[in-house]
Amino acid sequence: MENFEDLGFSKVDYGREKRQGFPEVIYGEGKTIEQIEPIMEKLIEKHGKVMVTRLDKEKGESLVSTFPLAHYDYTARILLYGKPENYYGGEVMVVCAGTSDLFVAEEAAITAEWMGCKVKRLYDVGVAGIDRLLAFREEITNADVLIVIAGMEGALPSVIGGLVQRPVIAVPTSVGYGAHLQGITPLLAMLSSCSSGMSVVNIDNGFGAAYQAALILKLVSEGVNHEIVIS
């Protein structure tokens, strides 16, 4: 198999799965239907599956009519074709501060599921009503990897980071009032967090958070052992 195929307007990366663990995912925003369709065809031919992110409703419905086995999710703006070949042990919990952040939360959850992860959702548990979060403390501490999504001041990942001994992947969202600065404020808050073991992805990047979580579970499932030499 060649590493990529040049379609003129796009070089389809067939080697992505071997290099990075998962096939190339199509970023749909800014691409036309005429560009997305042939890329999808090539990836389905080589991998038997494909995912397209950031698709508006019109493009999503058009692609489903061309690929009837595909499914378009309106909240996440994701198109899926095919299922994972492998399912990993462990659980990814996607925790979302507010209902307004669901478009990012569902992007993360659906991406992680498509990559072979078991996903549990916990939504609308922001710090403004801290009892809602603490009511699920046992489930939170039992998760293997947590993707924590928040807009406004972005406090939720720091709170959860102080409760668990597992990786926390924080996702700032563009949801908030003026001084929120379209996500810059929670991004900086998360980067400045005093909670240890927390990593941060870009604003609204549920996909990136899910990819990182899936790689963590993939590594654990592979049972990789490295010989330790003490001299």
From TrEMBL:
Q: What is this protein called?
A: 1-(5-phosphoribosyl)-5-amino-4-imidazole-carboxylate carboxylase
PANTHER family with a match to the protein in the record: PHOSPHORIBOSYLAMINOIMIDAZOLE CARBOXYLASE-RELATED, SLL1489 PROTEIN
Coiled-coil region: none
Q: Which SMART domains match?
A: AIRC
* Signal peptide segment: none
Q: Which GO terms label this protein's molecular function in UniProt?
A: hydrolase activity
Record-level GO BP terms: 'de novo' IMP biosynthetic process
Q: Which Pfam families match?
A: AIRC (PF00731)
Ranges where the PurE domain occurs:
90-222
Cite the SUPFAM superfamilies for this sequence: N5-CAIR mutase (phosphoribosylaminoimidazole carboxylase, PurE) (SSF52255)
Which domain of life does the protein's organism represent? Bacteria
